[in-house]
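Two proteins were folded this term; both appear here.
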Amino acid sequence: MTFLIYYHSDDYAFNIDHARRILSCRDKGALNSVSILANSACLAEAMEILPGDLAVSIHLNFCEGPCVADPARIPLLVDKRGYFCRSFAQMLVLSFTRHREVRRQLAIECSAQIRKVLSFLPDDYALRIDGHRHYHMIPAVFEAVYMAAQKTGRKTAYVRIPRDPWRIFLLHPRLLRHTRPLDIVKNLVLSALSFLNRRLYGRWKEPARAVFFGMMCAGEMTSERVRALLPFYEKQAAKEEKHLELMFHPGILLKGEPFLDPSSVHLPFYESENRNLGKR
């Protein structure tokens, strides 16, 4: 197997200026993969400037901004404006309490998002899938993603499992100094969800596997942290005979720029100066 490292940016196409800032990382040789938000108002313009040498994933979004499907068909997911309104915890509860119905509605929205992005990609594009804020790991969402992907009739090249390998930190506990307690909790939650999804993922035989790097330093993938941790992740990926995906969120959003949902509680995260730390 040819070992690949994907230096990956989530959230491509929040707005066109943000997209250009992400692509500036590619121009400097610091990026070779992006995830595309299907429900962006600037999707067509952002796809027009997207270079053909980048690996492209569909960044399925069920938590921010307007839906792509008819909102009347997915009332459990959106508010009266047709904007997504479920927190991660709320969606997780729905996954267990109204599993069949929420899965059905999620599959409708998922199919709509995939079709929209596919309309800008070559006919031979093989699906690469991940999720905004990792909602796709919630069991009902994961099942809906699988259903929608199978419906396209296309090969699936990659599905992200956003879980940093615990083995690295068990063998080298000193590396935890680079990690915040909140990120440890997030990695625990996503590890548990990956365990719940393991059977379905096992049936999904086509995707390439990759070791994930980004949860234990979520929001703070600085040069110092990446340099300290990367050799251990490379060694783990080689041991597991997998590729390696490093998830970044470059491209700060400036105040006053268009946003998926101006009322979002996550706005400070997108305007954080941490997004500029890689320049130093």
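Next, the second protein.
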Amino acid sequence: MNFRRSDFVAMAGLLLLLHALLMIGELRGLPFRLDHFTNAALLFTNLYFLYSGYLLSHRLAAFRLALYPLGYAVLLYVFFLRNPDWRPLFFVLGVVYCSAYRLPAVLGLFTVFILSHIFAQPHPWAAFLVLGSVFAVAYMVRRKAYGWFHVTALTFGLAIFGVLLFPIICFVLLDSPQTILETFSQSEVALAMKTSLLSATICTLIVLVFGVPLAYGIARTNFRGKTVLETAIDLPILIPQSAVGVAFLWVVGAKGFLGGTVNVGGTLAGVILAQMFVSAPFLIKTAITSFEAVHPHLESVARSLGASPAGAFWRVSLPLAARGIFVGCILTWARAISEVGSVAILAYYPMTAPVLVFSRSTQAGIEQARPVAIVLILTCLWIFIGLHFIRSAAFRRFVGRTEQI
């Protein structure tokens, strides 16, 4: 279906006449009035709509071309006729719509943006981030020629997961960047963030030192009670945080039965101890799975070539399991820095960032705790993204080179 140039010129002339009549006030009885500037902006947008339609008529099928004016009419009604306050936004959205109509991916994101602003007030940007991500993933998977069942399963699960993330995204977008920077510059907040980052990092390194040998031993040996041991490793995940804090305080607190020799209550060591207990299973279980994925035959080959058991571990098993171990380190660090209950009971001071958020929310209210919580979320998010980038960039090259060998 092609429009001739004469058709475009005729429709453009008719449009110019219509806007000229609007300008001189000859069209009376309309439910709205337009000033000259708004009339000129609407004329430009309509002319661009006609010109883009003229170009699209040579590229698109008849059905898709028929939907083109329908989408523009919806934009005109919602953002211009129904909501006069949104008229400046209509001029931008109209031009973007006409420009992106022949690009399915961009048009889909644009549609999600419009629907978010219509139905997700007062949090349209948070809704757009969630729904836009779902659409982008579904579109990319579909472009890979996967079946509709795979696309539907992925989209459904991702949409439900996005609903869980929606409150966090809304919460993060509440405050301005200036408020976040002012909050981060507060001495109490800066000290709490420093304590959280330091304790979580030390915790992860300590768990790495004993967790990797433990995971390797479990993966490579069979003995009576192995199932019980693997179940015991999961216990810290099941025990409530408050019970963990009370138990450690009763043993190594100031009034505990070891308090005379070992007292970690109210110290950085107490913070690290509580974080280690709740986060260690994430690294150990991930490392066990990674070592089990490395076939023991590879170690046997290294042994036949003269390597010792320790040499086979360092040169074969550990490099091949490194990616999974690094993922376990990320999960352990994330769990450690987010711990609140046991840390607040065992070592309230030095105060970590999660404990500071809890303290401000209970003493001063949610409004005082909100900026600190946003700073904590954003800091952890960027560090988490950075760690995953290191994993995908550095370890891909390292492990790939090892697999070639």
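The chain has a mean pLDDT of 87. The domain at 180-404 is CATH 1.10.3720.10 (MetI-like fold). These notes refer to the second protein only.
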